[in-house]
Amino acid sequence: MAGLAAQLAKHRATAEGLGSNQQAVKYLGQDFKSLRQECLDSGVLFKDPEFPACPSALGYKDLGPNSPQTQGIIWKRPKELCSSPEFIVAGATRTDICQGGLGDCWLLAAIASLTLNEALLYRVVPRDQSFQKDYAGIFHFQFWQYGEWVEVVIDDRLPTKNGKLLFLHSEANNEFWSALLEKAYAKLNGSYEALSGGSTVEGFEDFTGGISEFFDLKKPPANLYLIIRKALRTGSLVACSIDVSSAAEIEAITSKKLVKSHAYSVTGIEEVDFCGCPEKLIRLRNPWGEVEWTGAWSDNAPEWSFIDPRRKEELDKKAEDGEFWMSFSDFVRQFSRLEICNLSPDSLSSEEVHKWNLVLFNGRWTRGSTAGGCQNYPATYWTNPQFKICLDEVDNSQEDGASGSLCTVLLGLMQKNRRRKKRLGQGMLSIGYAIYKIPRELENHRDVHLSRDFFQGHRPSACSKTYINLREVSDRVQLPPGEYLVVPSTFEPFKDGDFCLRVFTERKAEAMEIGDMVAGNPHEPLPSELDQEDSQFRSLFEKLAGDDLEINANELKDILNGVFSRRKDIDFDGFDINTCREMVSLMDSDGTATLGLLEFKTLWLKMRKYLEIYLEADEDHSGTIDAHEMRTALKKAGFILNDQVQQTIAVRYACSKLCISFNSFVACMIRLETLFKLFRLLDKDKNGTVQLSLAEWLCCALV
User: Fold this and answer.
1) 8, HSE (Cβ side, Cα atoms, 13 Å)
2) Domain termination residue (choose one: 517, 548, 582)
């Protein structure tokens, strides 16, 4: 309940600008300026209670409290490691990033690329902090997280062994911005160990809010050199790696001194005149700060002797900082994967730079309601969240080789907070998406999910290349104008997870969530059914009600449980007293807290209708209905509910096996009818909103 309320409050705050880079969300509610001032006033250096300098901050398994790797670790502040520490020495550069004893080369490659763009760097690494002015042992950094910017506060106690930093460090012994940045990112993800293993684009996106594209260098596009050149010119972040075929090859070093399964930053691309012919070169950096390519165009290679000396002086960097040049053709042969994070994102398909339009959706897959799995599971696939894109305007210019009038869409599906769940043994989910052309007769359809019948009769127009356990699956597609449905899903059904879906379009396009409508028109018995002259029913009522001819909640409980417990075709555990009280409250028109003849008959007819709907939804005649079938049952009962409400119902009324008994089904129906009735009474202006005092809210919630 508290979590749902927090989500609603956050949604409203986001609408008012919270989460922008200028108004970042305070992670764990910690405010840098106020905390720093408290420390300055008290004269005590900051100690972060939310990420204390203790074994749990290091990790949970390989870096767990009893691991040999964590023995002898001492947490020290920079002023305990050197006499005159500096936050940044002579500007933040690529050589400030040297890998330590943590397998987060992917993150270090992203940080190294970040230093190439000062504007981006200082958005992540605010400049209002140092070890001199207003030093209080507290620092802060900003990261993009699933559609919003988050400010993370840390203290400057860093893990050391034998007097040296254990993890990320700078070449300069007195420079600490990169080590502190790594700590802040570790805090955001739960621990240092949570950062082990990953894709460089994850760091790229968390530093920029951009969206990434992947290129298979075994099948590179013909204009790959131009794509990379434009990416670097427009400030996009670029990385590459060499795939491995087995775990034994991880971080294996080739004969030419390239490291497999290791993230390299792409830091430059140039063309030189080599013996009268143009030669394309690319510059890479190994975050280890050493182990460099030894092939053609490496630091001491003979090729440098055959180009203009001034050009050689400009390009040939001999410092052993892990950075090196190689020919572009060797690069394509040696490396397997290229990753580019588009910042705006700008189009990388042509030389024209232009901005894209973005729509971002936050969603959730919940077991039993919206976690439908992929197309292999047709019974549940249709219950996944659904989003519509309306593409009306074609691109200004088409890519080489494209034909016809098309609209470019860049989709990114990102699962949230999975690194933090590593500690619990929960890794990344396998995720993907499919895009369907909406036929003309359904183009105005947006109130409720498209049904199972739609997906059985239509194939996707495009889909993600594969379901994969990466944080984000993204791809660029080109589609003819029209309306399209995007269905994001996990590979298997019944997998809980939060996600955000980003839809970038080259031209302005409308995008919306399907099934965002909430409406209720529950079944009401016909006047003829309520005929009070029904002598048989009157006789039954008089027998049940007793001398006062009224039925209270306790009597109702005995009556209903006696009737439905005899049925063999439903799973029935009995109505509890609270459900029966709510039934009475819903039907009670005269405020007696009891039911008269007409009120009881109305309830009885409702119960009969609920039973009919329940049995119809129970397709396998098991006596229960599956939680994902509630969407259909609710619709038949007159309720149209969005994903958020559907998820809440699944959590509240389904058992651990995701089944809903008849008594839980009726309890849900009665509760919904009560809530809709209350809302209509309070919505005096009929504008879909109500305003309540705290006392009024409590009365409504407790009814």
Assistant:
1) 8
2) 517
Which residues are catalytically annotated? 105, 262, 286
User: Token pair of 449, please?
Assistant: 């999910």
84 has a pLDDT exceeding 80: yes
622 in any annotated domain: yes
Helices (H), 475-519: none
**Contact of 621 with 636, CB cutoff 8 Å:** no
CA–CA dist 650, 110 (Å, integer): 40
pLDDT digits (tens, 9 = 90+) for 482-504: 999 999 999 999 999 999 999 98
Number of domains making up the chain: 4
Q: How many CB atoms lie within 10 A of CB 698?
A: 11
Q: Which domain holds residue 262?
A: 211-342
SS3 214: strand
Phi-psi region of 625 (alpha: psi -120 to 50; beta: other; left: phi over 0): beta
193, 258: one domain? no
Give how far the C-alpha of residue 690 lies from the chain's centroid of Cα atoms, to the nearest Å. 31
Asked if 612 and 618 touch (Cβ cutoff 8 Å), the reply is: no
pTM of the model: 0.77
State the Cα–Cα distance between residues 509 and 411, nearest whole angstrom: 13
Mean pLDDT over 505-516 rounds to 82
CA 318 to chain centre: 42
Contact 601, 689 (CB under 8 A): no
Residue 229 in any domain: the answer is: yes
Can you count the helices (H) and strands (E) in the chain?
21, 25
Sign of CA dihedral 673, 675, 677, 680: negative
Amino acid at 394: V
